[in-house]
Amino acid sequence: METLFLFLIMIVGIIFSAVISKYVPKIPLALIQISIGILMVLLPLNREVHFEPEIFMVCVIAPLVFYEGQKVSRKELWELKGPILLLAFGLVLLSVVLGGIVIHWLIPSMPLAISFALAAIISPTDTVALKSIVKNVKLPTNIMGVLEGESLINDAAGLVSFKVALGVALTGVFSVKEASVSFVVAAIGGVVLGAFIGVMFVKLRLRLRKMGLEESELLILIQLATPFVIYILAEKLEFSGILAVVAAGIVHGFEHDKLQKTTTKLKLVSNNVWSTLVYFLNSLVFLLLGSILPSVIQEIWDAADVHVLDLVLASILIISFLMFLRFIWVYVLYNHFVDPNYGSFEDYLAQLAGKKSVEKEPEISRFKYAFITTLAGVHGTISLATALSIPLILTNGEAFPLRNELLFITACVILISLVSATILLPLILPKEKNELMLVPILSEASAYQKVLQQTIVRLEQNRTDENHYVLNEIIMEIGSKLTEIETGYVRDENRKIIAEVLKTAQNGEADKLMSC
Predict the structure, then answer these.
(1) What residues contact residue 269 under an 8 Å CB cut-off, 6+ apart?
(2) Over the stretch 266-317, which tens digit does the pLDDT of each residue have?
């Protein structure tokens, strides 16, 4: 009953935060949820929030990164692979190493291994929080695509770094060679395993559909179970569970074309289930932070070695250093960001052949691009969830050192990044223009033509041996209407037929029509 009561309280808090966000849209939802979490603890409910850190990674982080992998644009991920990898791997590894050294220098009482773990915790970025901040402003070309790809990949890079640093903190043993080998083996093994099992799950769903098992509940249940099964199996094999889940999510995205025969009902139900689950998990993390923050502050305040104000100052210096490092990184590599093909092998061959590419006028200056990218690198759910997954005790049975301090600094870093982005980005970015009036309006005949063409495509995709002859008749009838439209001759009586086709198509394939 205790767990159920807390669960219901969290749901009420999430609903309440959504209502407040509706009336105060300028305040990021994450900040509202943290505040509500604090208020929930202050209420006379006589309830304390308890959760198991070991299962937090499985139950929260695994489904979140799997969903990100599914939804990321594969086209943009490939086209922008250069700048994405520069941020997601190059900058993350640099931030973990230099950030860990700076954190240890600022807080000498924090062991170096734990300092590296903290740097890994606060290295991932969060585009979910960013989108709520920049929804009314216009970002320069490709920045959002780069940030979305970075958010997906650097979650994995940061979490793998965190696991390595955490292992050192738990065992007290560190070797550069062993750590490097462990990192590479865990990363490669996780990616290969996740991709393989991801393909197997996709084939399983396709096989079940061919066997006539059309129940959307069963197919969605398999999809929901995928990240948990893959994460647990990868961890059992001592691979990176997070990288395995990310790879599986991307594979599910790549395999989307093979699932085109999935019914519209299944797609709609699946999207609704996943969006609801992800919304709940994202909100739950920030509510949990708010609910444990008062006790964390109280324990730090009661301790004699570290003061809360000292940690606040250290947090400001840490986030300032990370933002400065991010700015310098993007500023120096500016050409690789504004032109993803800059310095590529194809570009090198073109230079050898004496061909010079046409240089485009830069849309934005080097300084401004780096500054915007720095501010847009806000931290959020993954950092919080990772911090909350820190174990309570070491392998020798002792309490994990400075765990409360890690949680507090992580919270401060997230809050500072959210507030700075909320205040500064709208000031330096132009307002989003309403481009609806700029889109040419299709004529009635052109609209009918587009609808009929898409209807034929969808009918062809659903062709089977049983409906082959019926589909031929329908497609021939629609084809005759298309011929009349293309020749500019549409009889009034045909418009009624076309309207009926339009209504059927809208009811049966609404998602395809919306993408026209």
Answers:
(1) 216, 220
(2) 667 777 888 888 889 888 888 888 888 888 888 888 776 667 888 899 999 9
Mark 266-289 as b/e (b = at least 16 C-beta within 10 Å): bbeebeebbeeebeebbbbbbbbb
Determine the 3-state secondary structure of 483 from DSSP: helix
Cα(502)–Cα(499) distance, integer angstroms: 5
Q: What is the tens place of the pLDDT at every residue in 156-206?
A: 778 878 888 887 777 766 666 666 777 788 888 888 999 999 889 888 887
For residue 84, what are the CA distances in angstroms to 52, 143, 146, 322, 501? 34, 10, 6, 18, 44
Q: Which two tokens stand for residue 140?
A: 């320069």
- Give this prediction's pTM: 0.73
Task: Round to the nearest angstrom and report the end-to-end CA distance of the chain.
Answer: 49
| Distance (Å) of CA 341 to CA 336, 348, 355, 367 | 7, 10, 15, 21
Contacts of 171 (CB under 8 A, 6+ apart): 395
Q: Which range, of 21-30, 127-136, 401-410, 430-439, averages the lowest pLDDT?
A: 430-439
Contact 329, 94 (CB under 8 A): yes
Mean pLDDT of 101-120: 91
69 or 395, which is more confident: 69
With beta carbons less than 8 A apart as the criterion, state whether 456 and 512 touch: no
Look at the chain and count its residues. 516
pLDDT of residue 493: 44
Cite the beta strand spans of 303-389 per DSSP E.
none
Closest Cα partner for 306 from 20, 147, 110? 110
Neighbours of 470 (CB within 10 A): 11
Residue 122 is encoded by which pair of tokens? 């606060």
Closest to 383 measured CA to CA, from 18, 125, 180, 103 = 125
CB contact set of 424 (below 8 Å; sequence gap of 6+): 375
